[in-house]
Structure formats: C-alpha cells, structure tokens
User: Which sequence fits this backbone?
C-alpha cells in the first residue's frame, strides 16, 4: 500500500493533466463582466421589462431611447418606433418599456409627445397612467390613437397661413365689413322685426347693447345655475363628462354607429319638420296639463303608500295561498275535464234548450198571471171581505166566511143519524099556496111553479128585475166592487122590507158570464188591498185564508 502511494506522489509536473489555465482565466473575466454589467445597468440579459405600445398620429422626432415621463419623472424609455399598418401613412406605433415605478398603467391612460427644449427637436413621451377605477393593461397591450396626441410643429404653424388662406381671410374680413354696413332693401325688411327695419347690421348691433344688461343678467343667472346647488357640482359635471367621453373613446365602433344612427335620426326629423313644429307648439299646453296631473298624482301618493303598506301582509301570504290553491286547481281541472263536467254539459244541452223555451213562454205567461193576481187582490178578495147587513140575521162576519159556513151546514144536513153515511131528504110538495120562479133561460125562458103550505115571508135579497151593470171591456182589477148591501130584501121580522103579495115569486139569481179579458203585454202589479189579513204575507196565504176560514191564524 505504501509503495503505490509513493509512485503517485512522484509523477512529474509535465506529465500531469487538467484544466487549461487560459480558459479558466477567460471564463473568470466573462463572469466578472456580466456581473459588472448587471450591477451597473440593473438589467438581466436576454429579458425585458413591462412593455406597452401606443399608436400616434405623428411620432416625428421620437426615436429609440427617448425618455418616457410621468409628471416630469423618467419611468421608462422608447424601445422601437415603426409604421402603423392600416393607418393613413403618417401614424406610427411606439413601443415603450416602463419601469416598476411607472406601474400600474390603466386602460384609460393617455400619452402625449412633448418637446424637451423649445426648438431643440428632441421629444419625450408624457404618460398619464389613468384612473384607478379603470382596468389595468397587460404587458404588450396597445393603446389606441384616440388616447394619444402629437405636438404641433413650428413648420405647421408657418404653413397655416399660406397665400390661399390669406386670401380667404381677406375675403372674410371684406364680407364681414360689407355685412355690417349693408343698407337693407324693402324686400330684406319684409320679414324683419319692426325695431330693426332700415338699419344696417352695425346699427342693429349697437342697438343690441341697450338690451345687453338684461341679457347679461339672465346669462349670469344661467351661469350661476351651472355652478350647481353644492360645491364642486360643476367640477363633478366636467369630470363625469370626461368619463363619458373616455367611455365613448374606448368603444370607437359603437361611437361611429352612434354618430351614423344619430345622423339618420336627424335626417328623419328634418323630413318631418312640419309635424315636429306642430308637436313643439303643442308641447307647452301638454306640459301644463301634465303639471296639473302630476300635482293630483302626488296628492294621491299618501293614500297609495298607506294602501301599499296595508296590503303587504296579504302579498306576503300570496305564495302560501298559491301553494294551498294548487291541489284545488288540479282537482278542478279534472272536474271540468271532458269526462266530468264536459260530458255533463253535453248531456244538459237539450235540457238547456227546453229551459230557454220555457223561459220565453214564462215571459208571456207572467203578465197574464200578474193580471190574475191583481184581479184577486183588488176585486175578488175585497168583495169577499164585505159584511152583509141582513137585519136580525146579520152575522157580522165577512161574506166569504158565511159561504163556507153554509157549505158546512149543507154537509152536516145530509148526514144520517149515526154519522156513517149520507142521504138526501126530500119534502113532498103540496099546499094551497102557489109560488113561481120567474122566467129563466133568456127572453123565451120558462117559468116554474110550486105549491107550499105557508106563504113566503120575503126574499133576501129581493130580485131587482135586471142584471147589475157590468163593463166587459175593463180589466177585472179595474171593475167596481159590487154593492152587496144595496139590494132591498123582502118582508121579514127585522128585515126592514115589505111584505110581498101572495103568491110571491121565488128569486132567481142571474147568471153572470165573465167576458174574455184582453191581457196587455206588460202590467204593473198593484199593492194588496188594505183588507189583506195579517196572517198571510203573500197572495197564496190570502187565498188560503179565504178558502178555509178555520185555518190556524185565519181571520174569524
């Protein structure tokens, strides 16, 4: 082991192999140069900082390494200037590299090319980074030409007044002087205000000075109004106008479309200038009526607000109401389906047709029924309420009750002794006294005779010998009530009459034939007579009281 180590130590220098000292020294020098460059330039090789591009209408005298400043402080430099593709030939694209001190840059940033020293010719780019509210731009983004501005060159100032321009200016001044001293003709004054007729423009301008104080005072009022109600209102208006303008600038195509559409709209209005004139003339009265309407509307708002406040609980319950109604709606939809109510309606259709015919018939029958009701109310029932004065036989009851009492008596008269049957009793005629009935059956009627044992005492009522007057052309309801106590009676005790000679003829009650009554198409029902009993509140109850005097509650 020791012998091998000794052999390695004894290798000659010329025989040794390793790195070339020259190459090592050169590499050390290169590393030192890179370190020195990075230290002094503060830039990493093969990299670049934040770059932004901008399109200028004219980037003359802007060259690479021209400074980029913000508020007079250098924050970058121009890296490249090249022609703008798609422009008018003078536009240029300027590429700038911005240091970290100049970041961030927003999308509403503006750039201007300014001279460093007057008439020097060297330029710099003045950058305004934009507002913090706007979005930030990214590395390599391009700002449009609408956000850049180029300086006016001295040669442009000198070429502004060329010979043709000077001639135009001379003609302008001559025309302005002629306009001020021109004497108007009668045709020119035909459409002018009487106060300026015959005056030159200069004279009218001098006259306008007399109205200047009032106009200036009104202008001052307008200017004062432009200041706003609070401090910085005007500056806020200008600032907001700037924001609107910048927003329009960022959307160039939309702005172009707006201008085009606005031009089209103005052309349409110009083609309708007469209608527009009439509209503007009517605008004043319309605004007056609108003001009145708004005043009334404003007065109604408190009630509207109160109503809205009161209805809020109901509105809050509306979703729950809708949820609760959905099952009912689902069942209702099934109920009105073709299989349910739809089929029922189809089956009821013939019945509906018949019911409609019945209603039509009822419309014709109801007036006749109304006449019948009025006849019963105004004629039949009051006649039945009359009390017959019959001397000692007076019952002091209404005659309709006496009629039913007679019916009861006749029914009881035919009973047998044990109440199990009926039979009719006949009395055999005979006697020395003769009675007759008088003629019946018209003018050629017959007369009946009979024999009785005792002479008649009299008749109640006595036969008048003719019919009572009857108007067959009047309606039943309009007939005069009969005078049931007007007929005299025959001789009898307490009867107040006279004794008839023997033999006395029997009385035949004349048959009264009720004529047909023409029913009017419409009639107005009359109220019930004052004699309507209290036991019934309808015509049916009235008739039941008359037909059955023993009915509970009937008048006795």
Assistant:
């Amino acid at each position: 082991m020791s012998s091998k180590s000794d052999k390695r130590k004894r290798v000659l220098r010329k025989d040794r192999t390793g790195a070339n000292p020259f190459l090592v020294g050169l590499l050390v020098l290169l590393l030192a140069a890179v370190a020195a460059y990075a230290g002094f330039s503060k830039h990493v090789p093969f990299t670049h900082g934040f770059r932004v591009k901008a399109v200028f209408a004219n980037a003359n005298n802007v060259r690479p390494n021209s400074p980029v400043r913000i508020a007079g402080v250098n924050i970058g430099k121009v890296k490249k200037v090249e022609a703008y593709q798609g422009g008018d030939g003078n536009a240029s694209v300027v590429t700038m590299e911005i240091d970290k001190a100049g970041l961030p840059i927003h999308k509403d940033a503006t750039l201007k090319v300014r001279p460093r020293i007057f008439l020097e010719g060297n330029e710099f780019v003045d950058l305004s980074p934009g507002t913090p509210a706007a979005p930030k731009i990214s590395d390599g983004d391009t700002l449009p030409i609408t956000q850049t501005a180029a300086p006016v060159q001295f040669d442009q100032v000198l070429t502004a007044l060329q010979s043709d321009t000077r001639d135009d200016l001379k003609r302008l001044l001559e025309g302005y002087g002629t306009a001020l001293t021109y004497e108007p003709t009668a045709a020119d004054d035909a459409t002018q205000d009487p106060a300026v007729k015959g005056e030159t423009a200069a004279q009218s301008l001098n006259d306008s000075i007399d109205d200047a104080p009032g106009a200036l005072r009104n202008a001052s009022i307008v200017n004062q109004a432009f200041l706003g109600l609070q401090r910085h209102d005007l500056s806020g208006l200008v600032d907001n106008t700037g924001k609107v303008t910048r927003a329009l600038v960022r959307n160039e195509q939309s702005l172009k479309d707006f201008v085009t559409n606005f031009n089209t709209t103005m052309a349409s209005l110009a083609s309708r200038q007469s209608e527009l004139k009439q509209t503007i003339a009517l605008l004043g009265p319309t605004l007056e009526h609108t003001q009145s309407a708004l005043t009334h509307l404003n007065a109604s708002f408190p009630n509207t607000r109160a109503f809205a406040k009161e209805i809020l609980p109901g509105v809050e319950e509306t979703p729950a109401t809708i949820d609760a109604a959905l099952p009912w709606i689902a069942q209702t939809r099934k109920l009105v389906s073709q299989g349910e109510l739809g089929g029922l309606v189809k089956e009821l259709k013939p019945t509906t047709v018949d019911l409609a015919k019945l209603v039509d018939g009822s419309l014709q029958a109801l007036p006749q029924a109304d006449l019948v009701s009025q006849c019963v109310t105004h004629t039949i029932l009051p006649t039945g309420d009359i009390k017959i004065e019959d001397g000692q036989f007076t019952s002091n009851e209404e005659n309709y009750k006496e009629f039913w009492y007679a019916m009861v008596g006749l029914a009881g008269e035919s009973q047998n002794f044990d109440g199990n049957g009926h039979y009719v009793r006949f009395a055999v005629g005979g006697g020395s006294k003769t009675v007759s009935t008088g003629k019946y059956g018209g003018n050629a009627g017959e007369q009946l005779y009979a024999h009785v044992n005792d002479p008649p005492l009299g008749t109640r009522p006595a036969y008048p010998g003719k019919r009572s007057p009857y108007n067959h052309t009047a309606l039943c309801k309009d007939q005069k009530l009969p005078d049931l106590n007007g007929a005299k009676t025959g001789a009898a005790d307490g009867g107040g009459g006279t004794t008839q000679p023997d033999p006395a003829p029997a009385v035949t009650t004349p048959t009264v034939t009720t004529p047909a009554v023409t029913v009017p198409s419409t009639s107005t029902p009359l109220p019930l007579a004052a004699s309507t009993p209290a036991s019934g509140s309808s015509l049916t109850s009235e008739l039941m009281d008359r037909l059955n005097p023993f009915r509970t509650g009937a008048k006795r």
About this structure: The chain has 13 helices and ten strands. Residues 78 and 96 are 4 Å apart (CA to CA). Confidence is low (pLDDT under 50) at residues 492-536. The beta strands are 50-56, 67-70, 73-83, 92-98, 110-115, 123-128, 142-143, 148-149, 433-440, 446-452.
